Amino acid sequence: MPSSGSFLRQLSGRSTSWRWGAGTSKYCTAEGGYNCERSLKQMEGLDMYGNENAGLVMRKRVVVVVDQTSHSKHAMMWALTHVANKGDLLTLLHIIPPGDRCSGERASDSHSPYLASSLGSLCKASRPEVEVEALVIQGPKLSTVISQVKKLEVSVLVLGQKRPSTLISCLCGTSSSEDFVQQCISNAECLTVGVRKQSKGMSGYLITTRTQKDFWLLA
Known about the structure:
Protein name: UspA domain-containing protein
Strand order of the largest sheet: 1-4-3-2-5-6-7-8
Pfam families: Usp (PF00582)
Number of helices: 7
CATH class: Alpha Beta
InterPro entries: Rossmann-like_a/b/a_fold (IPR014729), UspA (IPR006016)
Strand content: 15-25%
């Protein structure tokens, strides 16, 4: 892992990434993951997962936009267990705002350049058969996501959604984070999925795409 100084030099105007090789950690997945994949595929009308028995599985690049929030981590784990297959590339994209110094110990949790690296290690330990990459880019959040989707030829973009506050919605309308997810869903040139974990006491996820809103998946 690069030092803070060398990392910041690389970060200026460019991007930095880490990749993990094959590991030996035990494979863990959520029960019902295959059914969720089929539901998502049928929901969008896309045969994006291929037919493994017929040897038609196509390598996908799955990108998850990550930060320090719990809903971001829920989206990451959902993508890891329900979208990424063996041999696919899972890219954790962490976007740092322009002008943020992110220097060593002074970096906040939300803007730490090593947040994506830490999350990437967690993903690789959970599913070693999936190739994992952590990519950190400094720039405007929405335009950076849209440009990276095109540049990386992304198959699926996954974004975490937090539970909306009724009070804030009544007073201010949609929040900036909700607007960001909707803008990505509307403008990204790939299948884009907003993922929100159900509240405590309820199982499953609510999935939002360009054609479906709050589609409930049990697993």
